[in-house]
Write a structure and sequence with these properties.
30% of the residues lie in helices and 26% in strands. The protein is built from 26 helices and 50 strands. The longest helix is centred in the middle third of the chain and has 27 residues. The chain is flat, with a radius of gyration of 51 Å. It starts with a strand and ends with a strand.
């Protein structure tokens, strides 16, 4: 059995395998063995009817991500193909439904095999398809399913072409789930301007257990959940619950595309075959904020109802324009539901309008340009007209079956509606199509003769071609029909835009370059725009480039300069966007640089120079946004080429605009009574008071002056700082992203200055304070001084006392580059603050803000209990420097501990202070490390001079072996009569400008004490020493060892210890610890034994170290001897320790203390073998024997050879026999009292006999040979 280290629970391989297998079974049961099958799964169907476009000021990319996970998706594939499902990152597939089989005969959706004579089964389905699809796709980001009958549970209808259709959602990995039991109430809550988005709702019963239903505080929507509401999906008596998966999304996400449909039940009943959807409609109906688009449905209209969709406003340009069409008549909501999502469909957008909608009137076509003089380049409403007002195709939806009994009447009515649409579109090339909504599924082409005849009649009545008439069966599965309609609509729109392009091109032959230069630009732009709507981006880019070249061929003067720049800027934007779209970023950058080079000198009127700066700023901003969008779509940027540089340039031009506006715009001028800027512009970039004027000289000089004056007055109201801050913020974000710290810091300084000019001093101070840390570290003293000066003004205008004191001290310090007179003024204000007086106003402060600041300062000074300020100056560069050190890294306990504090002032005048205190890690010593001023002793610092203060104290004996650290230094400026400012340094002082000095972070406390003032020292040579160690007193005794090495194995070896006292007093309670030094090989401690007596051999149980052997007291110059005996049973070197400890009374700075002293002596001794013994058997003739015979005498001979460096005495020897017998009755020792020198040997012989063996054992024991010896 194994034990887990963390849980201490027994674990076995079998139990772990069993647990894992059990978990697998549970999961399978939950998914596939639920008793109340099927589950009621439902999902919100969100309907989008909007233009498939994006504005320049589009929402961030995460909005698209949220859109993709808030809607349902549908994927389908024909038999023998692969169905692919892909969800965005950090989401997973949640399968809602799966259909495999054939429901209706749809010609373009998985058509049948050619020449198939077998009638296809149009009502077949596989019951297990959803389980198969779930097993492949559920909870995965992407999956690929083979549409094969073998894989999908068998062939439900052989010889029939089948398809697989899967409805799914992309469920985020991080979402909320709430459960409530039957007859309970579920409360869903969203805060902070967010609204509910429900991903799924399940009503039923899980196999394993019932969920807990904890109450939720607060509610956004309440749902009483019971079988009366949702029906009963399970067997009677089954315990059920409701599970809702949801998330809270920002409200603006919903507002971007519209508001919420308040009544989800105002939807045509096309869900009769899907009763589970009613549950979700109930949930979504009482949870406001779920539908993503504003949809107003009016069922009371006589034309069958219509939908009104909020679209983009006029004057906004499209990011990716696409062709759009109008749907009118009895438009079914099911079409919109099946039309969504748009990501994998043809790029068309549609708007639902009533059949009698009035379209813009078409003006009379021009037949000749001979006498035509254009008044401008491009009309302001032209793009909006083709994006939102004039459709490429109008589709009329009309309910009409081929077998309708009122066919004639409805045919006439349909023709009338078509004629109304055509009349409204008179003069336009817009196509018209009709879609018949029918209840029955149509027969294959050619089989329904009635349908063919009536279709032909309807086309004749409506004057339609056969390609403009479509049938839409109102059945459950509309995907195939919708895709077919989309493709047909897309082809019609392509034809329309192709026709428009040819129409514009046909005008070229009537133009001349003398009077129609503007028309050349206009027509090239229109061709490019129509190509873009046609999704032909290559040709669009080509014609945009041509238009751009032509516009710079125009003669530019002050009258038309703004129009040229406006159109050039817009065309340049289109070119750059298309280059990024084509993945050619270098072309986009080259185009933009060319654009700036061509336009940067086209300033126009000098009185409106701020307009040119604003235009330049907008160019850089727009390109930065395009660049940033391209990066989000996969483009790789680098540190030296990223959108941050363009945002920075945009901010620079905005700053120029601000400066020029201050210079050109006068403050006392009154706005003209007749507004010259009123009215709408007919052409982009023209002046409202002289529209259509193209000559060099303005038509009315007075109107020109009045218009310029009005523009200048309006410019005064522009929030320049806000614009600059927004651009700088974007640039900072980019430089932070691409790791450009210095650029980021530089721009943050500019942001802080703009906040200062905008009078938002709190944000300005926050930004500047953040940046100052970097400039202090990198020692940019000039830049730091400029930032500190601005920060000081902010602190003054905010009346922030602490910040004001900090910046005053830093501007007086060594890092400041201010002149002497400026420092004197700052020092004067600092003195006033310390005396609790209102400081003088700082230079260059806004006069309107100074009076408010003085009032705030008066309130601060009158505020009781707020006259103490603590400043940690370690992170600043103050005008007082501080360093401290212990005089030694260690002190003996009988020595006073000494430390020094060095102070130096950098201000213009001497600085007085009231108190200096040092805080230590042991606060009991703090009382000795403090000094305060008095009437007799005033403390001050002379500028540029170093002053040293000494502190000393006596350590406690219990602190021996401990470290004492400086935790802080505190200096008090001011007094209790005014304002007390405590300057604190962590550790031993230093500041941020001294990175080589060790800065220790800790808290400080204030105590009282005494100090001694010393002479001046060189500041640069002072080093920090923030800690010291307390060590024991130096012992005044001698310990001597006398012995005769080496140690002989197993002898009682004597080491004599002689202790002599050299103390002036009595050494009390002397103790000796002797023996093997700890920390050596463990085997040595088991084979080494120490004893105090050597008269007998010590036992194996004796210790290797004897502690605290009491020796008594030692008087001065008294000697004491002690013998220690050691027995070593193995050879090798050993280290022996002799530790002598005692107590002695001593005096330190007049204080009597008892010191514990000790002295150690260490000796290394080698252990060797004293002699070697060998034994051999020989015959009586001295011949070697390997075996002996019974009852025949033989000789046993022993040889002893000395290996000791000292002579050894063999006291006696003996042989104790076990089985053998001796031939002589008396076996006396032949080696008794024999002395052997090194290398000498001795031998003795015994005559023995082997008796008969009884147990037939050939081997017998001889006996034991013993030798007694000594040195």
């Amino acid at each position: 059995m194994l034990f887990s280290k963390n849980t201490k629970a027994p674990l076995t391989t079998d139990s772990m395998s069993s647990s894992s297998y059990s978990n697998t079974v549970v999961i399978m049961d939950v998914i596939r063995r639920t008793p109340c099958h099927p589950w009621w799964r439902f999902i919100l169907i969100v309907i989008i009817l909007s233009l498939e476009t994006q504005l320049i000021s589009s929402a961030p990319d995460f909005t698209k991500h949220l859109h993709s996970i808030l809607r349902n998706h549908t994927a389908f594939a024909c038999e023998n193909h692969i169905l692919s499902i892909v969800c965005p990152p950090r989401t997973s597939v949640s399968v809602l439904s799966a259909f495999y089989g054939r429901h209706e005969v749809i010609p373009n959706l998985c058509p049948s095999v050619p020449n198939n004579t077998v009638e296809e089964n149009i009502h077949c389905t596989s019951a297990v398809a959803i389980e198969k699809v779930k097993s492949e796709c559920q909870d995965r980001q992407s999956c690929h399913v083979s549409v094969l009958s073998l894989f999908l549970g068998g062939d439900p209808c052989p010889l029939t072409t089948k398809f697989l259709q899967v409805s799914y959602k992309c469920q985020p990995q991080h979402h909320r789930t709430r459960l409530v039991c039957e007859n309970g109430r579920l409360k869903l809550l969203c805060k902070n301007s967010t609204v509910l988005a429900i991903y799924s709702a399940t009503f039923g019963h899980m196999l394993h257990g019932s969920p807990s239903c904890p109450p939720e505080a607060g509610s956004h929507s309440d749902m009483e959940r019971n079988v009366m509401t949702f029906g009963n999906p399970c067997f009677p008596g089954t315990r059920k619950h409701l599970r809702v998966s949801f998330a809270c999304v920002p409200r603006y996400l919903l507002e971007d595309v519209g508001f919420v449909s308040r009544d989800p039940f105002m939807i045509p009943d096309y869900t009769h075959d899907f009763p589970e959807k009613v549950v979700l409609y109930f949930v979504s109906g009482i949870c406001a904020g779920l539908v993503v688009l504003e949809i107003h449905y009016n069922s009371s209209r006589s034309d069958g109802g219509y939908f009104e969709v909020i679209t983009q406003g006029e004057g906004r340009t499209e990011e990716k324009p696409s062709g759009w069409l109008v749907l009118s008549g009895n438009f079914p909501l099911s079409f919109a539901a099946a039309r969504w999502p748009l990501a994998d469909r043809v790029p068309i957008s549609f708007k639902v309008l009533p059949g009698d909608h009035e379209y813009p009137k078409c003006r009379t076509k021009r037949t000749s340009y001979e006498w035509y003089i254009p008044k401008g380049i491009l009309k302001t409403g032209w793009m909006n007209k083709h994006l939102n007002l004039v459709p490429a195709l109008v589709v009329l939806f009309y309910e009409l079956d081929w077998e309708d009994p009122q066919w004639k009447e409805k045919q006439s009515e349909c023709a009338t509606k078509v004629e109304i649409v055509r009349t409204s579109l008179q003069g336009r090339n817009t196509k018209v199509a009709v879609v018949l909504i029918q209840k029955k599924t149509p027969l294959p082409p050619g089989e329904d003769l009635v349908a063919s005849e009536r279709a032909s009649a309807l086309c004749n009545a409506c004057d339609l071609s056969g390609k403009s008439l479509f049938v839409l069966p109102h059945t459950d599965h509309l995907v195939g029909y919708i895709i077919r309609l989309e493709n047909a609509f897309y082809e019609h729109s392509q034809t329309y835009y192709y026709t428009e392009i040819r129409r514009v091109k046909s005008h070229k032959e009537f133009l001349n370059k003398t009077t129609h230069q503007l028309l050349f630009v206009r027509h090239q732009f229109k061709i490019a725009f129509f190509s873009e709507l046609k999704q032909d981006t290559q040709n669009a880019l080509k014609y945009y480039r041509t238009a751009y070249s032509l516009i710079h061929e125009l003669r530019a003067h002050e009258t038309n300069m703004l129009e040229i720049k406006t159109m050039a800027g817009f065309i340049n934007y289109k070119i750059c966007r298309l280059c990024f779209q084509h993945n050619t970023p270098l072309d986009a950058i080259a185009q933009f640089r060319k654009h700036i080079d061509l336009c940067k000198k086209k300033i126009g009127s000098a009185e409106l120079a701020f307009e040119h700066a604003a235009w330049m700023s907008k160019q850089f901003q727009s390109f930065g946004e395009l660049f940033d969008e391209a990066i989000k779509l996969g483009l790789t940027a680098i540190q030296t080429q990223n959108p941050g540089f363009y945002y920075q340039q945009a901010a620079c031009y905005s700053q120029d605009r601000k400066q020029q506006a201050h210079q050109l715009c006068q403050t006392e001028i009154i706005y003209p009574t007749t507004d010259p800027l009123s009215g709408t512009l007919d052409f982009y970039g023209q002046r409202s008071w002289r529209q259509g004027h193209q000559s060099i000289d303005p038509p009315d000089t007075e109107k020109e002056k009045t218009g310029i004056l009005a523009l200048q007055i309006k410019e005064k109201g522009v929030p320049h700082s806000e614009l600059i801050i927004a651009l700088l913020s974007n640039a900072v974000a980019q430089f932070k992203k691409y790791k450009c710290p210095r650029m980021k810091s530089h721009l943050m300084v500019q942001m802080g200055e703009e906040y200062y000019h905008a009078k938002d001093y709190t944000k300005a101070l926050k930004l500047l304070d953040y940046v100052m840390c970097d400039y202090r570290t990198e020692k940019w003293w000039g830049l730091l001084t400029a930032i500190l000066t601005t920060a000081l003004r902010c602190a003054y205008l905010m009346a922030s006392v602490k910040d004001y004191i900090i910046y005053c001290m830093e501007l007086l310090g060594r890092a400041s580059t201010l002149k002497e007179e400026q420092k004197l003024k700052i020092e004067k204000n600092l003195t006033k603050v310390l005396q609790n007086e209102v400081p003088d106003a700082e230079l260059e402060c806004d006069p309107s803000s100074v009076s408010a600041a003085k009032s705030l300062w008066g309130d601060r000074m009158a505020l009781a209990g707020a006259n103490e300020v603590t400043i940690e100056v370690q992170d600043y560069i103050p005008f007082i420097q501080c360093k401290a050190k212990f005089l030694s890294p260690s002190f003996h306990v009988d020595q006073p501990i000494q430390l020094q504090v060095f102070l130096k002032a950098d201000g213009p005048n001497p600085v007085s202070f009231s108190k200096l205190a040092v805080s230590l890690s042991n606060q009991e010593y703090n009382q000795w490390c403090i000094i305060e001023s008095s009437s007799q002793n005033t403390m001050s610092l002379v500028p540029g001079k170093t002053k040293c203060y000494n502190f000393s104290f006596v350590a406690k004996t219990e602190d021996v072996g401990k470290k004492i650290e400086m935790t802080g230094i505190e200096l008090l400026l001011g007094s209790v009569r005014g304002r007390c400012v405590f300057l604190t340094w962590r550790g031993a002082g230093g500041d941020i400008a001294s990175p080589h000095e060790a800065l220790q972070a800790s808290r400080s406390s204030r105590r009282w004490g005494r100090s001694l003032e010393t002479q001046e020292q060189d500041w640069d040579n002072v080093t920090l020493q923030h800690s010291t160690m307390i060590i024991s007193r130096i012992p005044k005794i001698s310990v001597q060892l006398s012995h005769q090495p080496p140690v002989l194995n197993n002898e009682m070896y004597c080491l004599n210890v002689t202790i002599r006292s050299q103390e002036e007093g009595v050494a009390k309670d002397v103790k000796l610890t002797a023996g093997l030094k700890p920390g050596q090989d463990a085997n040595l401690s088991q084979t080494t034994h120490v004893a105090l007596e050597g008269s007998k051999i010590c036992e194996d149980s004796a210790a290797a170290l004897i502690p605290d052997i009491l020796l008594g007291d030692l008087n001065p110059d008294q000697k004491l001897e002690k013998g220690i005996f050691v027995r070593c049973s193995t050879t090798g070197p050993r280290i022996f320790l002799f530790h002598v400890a005692y107590f002695v009374d001593t005096t330190v700075e007049g204080r009597q203390i008892v010191c514990k002293c000790h002295k150690d002596e260490i000796v290394t001794v080698e252990t060797v073998v004293p002699f070697e013994v060998s034994v051999k058997f020989v015959s009586t003739k001295l011949e070697p024997l390997e075996r002996v015979s019974m009852d025949i005498p033989f000789l046993l001979m022993t040889d002893v050879i000395s290996s000791s460096p000292w002579p050894i005495l063999l006291s006696s020897s003996s042989l104790e026999l076990f089985s053998l017998t001796s031939t002589s009755p008396d076996m006396k020792s032949q080696l008794e009292q024999t002395v052997l020198e090194t290398g000498e040997g001795a031998s003795e012989c015994f005559c023995l006999c082997c008796p008969p063996v009884i147990d037939n054992n050939n081997a017998i024991a001889t006996g034991q040979y013993s030798i007694a010896w000594r040195r």
